[in-house]
Design goal:
With 74 residues, this protein is α+β, with helices and mostly antiparallel strands. 35% of the residues lie in helices and 14% in strands.
């Protein structure tokens, strides 16, 4: 996400809140931030993740189910 053209919108979530929403440990969102895999905002020494960025991250990871193959009669 290009922060100059599309500023983050929605609530700013703490790392603890993101971990709870993702049902993971706090270490996972911290790793996403460290690896720059999710957009985040620095407010002084605090780090916040915009709700819109979390939604985009989740949407990017959605995998659609495959359609079952129908067997052809021989």
């Amino acid at each position: 996400m290009d922060s100059k053209n599309n500023p983050p919108t929605g609530r700013l979530l703490t790392v603890d809140q993101v971990a709870e929403l993702l049902n993971t440990s706090v270490r996972y969102p911290r790793r996403l931030i460290e690896e720059r895999r999710i957009t985040f905002v620095r407010i002084g020494r605090h780090v916040r993740i915009p709700e819109s960025s979390l939604d985009e991250f989740i949407t990017a990871g959605v995998v659609e189910p495959l359609r079952p193959h129908t067997r052809r009669a021989a």
